[in-house]
Design brief:
This protein is mostly helical and 315 residues long. It folds into two domains: 152 residues; 148 residues. It contains eight helices and no strands. The radius of gyration is 39 Å and the shape is elongated. The two termini are 30 Å apart.
Length: 315
């Protein structure tokens, strides 16, 4: 009849069955057997634990490596911008931000503003192009709707470029004025550097922006005249991109250096790392409980074997 090896004392009883107990006078042989069985059981549990924990550790280490690589790239990029960062801090310290019109709002608020203005441009121009092609009630199922919306986004992007270039011009002019004032006050200007700008590039971008607006306005005005509609829609379509340019100029901080920050990929990786860390912690606790259970079982077996030795008169 097979013995139940999970039953407490079963291993001690099985060891006692080896050899002729009437001829054996020492406990050493049985104790050695039990110690060997304990080592084998612990090695088996530890092998299972390595496999049980190893998979999670491998995934955790891969995520950590990925996060570390991304952080290294951001650090290397920041090092290439170190001179710009230094100049930005120097100009802030001498009060350049007080010399320019600037709305100080969080980056998240800036993103919301950009999205709203881009959505407005998309909607207004999608309707304008659709009307021009005879679609009076455009919907997302119409090709003209997306063509017009795409045109609106192009106008928005060009407008942002124009705003940033003219913001650069006003910033550099403010730098020059402040630099002159600081020179007269005998301030230390050894490290302070005045920026530069390209007026030709700014004018060219502004010209493209005006042409795009004029083309869209012409298309809308022809269609409006044909429908006998008022000029409200045309005025709105023309003003919104201009307002977007003005708003971008006001919220764009020229003293900020565009350093790379952790983004959605990093957020997802960090969330995954936290999950893997929790999972690993749980598995490590389970692994310790398994090993402790084996050790406790063999402590009992040693006591059971000692009791059996006593009952059989072993020395």
């Amino acid at each position: 009849m097979a013995r139940n090896k999970n039953r407490l004392g079963s291993i001690a009883s099985e060891i006692m069955s080896y050899g002729d107990t009437d001829l054996m006078q020492s406990r050493d042989a049985h104790n050695d057997m039990l110690n060997t069985a304990e080592k084998m059981a612990l090695n088996d549990v530890r092998a299972q634990v390595r496999s049980y924990i190893g998979k999670v550790k491998f995934k955790r280490d891969a995520v950590v490596s990925h996060l570390s690589a991304r952080e290294t790239k951001r650090t290397e990029y920041a090092e290439t911008k170190s001179d710009l960062v230094e100049q930005s801090e120097l100009w802030k310290n001498v009060g350049i931000r007080e010399r320019i019109a600037l709305w100080s709002i969080p980056k998240s608020a800036k993103t919301v503003v950009w999205l709203l203005l881009a959505a407005l441009d998309f909607y207004l121009f999608s309707e304008a192009i659709a009307y021009a092609q005879g679609v009076t009630n455009p919907s997302p199922s119409d090709t003209q709707f997306w063509i017009g919306g795409g045109f609106g986004l192009v106008v928005f992007i060009v407008g942002v470029i124009v705003a940033q270039q003219f913001r650069k011009i006003t910033y550099v002019k403010a730098q020059k004025r402040l630099y002159s004032e600081l020179e007269q006050s005998d301030a230390d200007l050894a490290k302070l550097q005045v920026g530069d700008y390209s007026l030709g590039s700014a004018v060219a971008s502004a010209l493209v922006f005006v042409i795009l607006l004029a083309a869209a306005a012409l298309v809308r005005s022809v269609q409006t005249a044909g429908l006998g509609d008022g000029g409200g829609a045309l005025t709105l379509q023309s003003l919104v991109p201009v307002v977007a340019v003005v708003v971008e100029m006001l919220i764009n901080d020229p003293t900020e250096v565009g350093l790379k920050q952790p983004g959605p990929v990093d957020w997802v990786l960090t969330w995954r790392l936290r999950r893997l860390e929790r999972k690993l912690s749980i598995r490590e606790e389970v692994a310790m409980e398994r090993e402790d259970a084996v050790k406790a079982k063999y402590e009992f077996e040693k006591g059971a074997l000692s009791a059996l030795h006593e009952s059989h008169g072993f020395q």
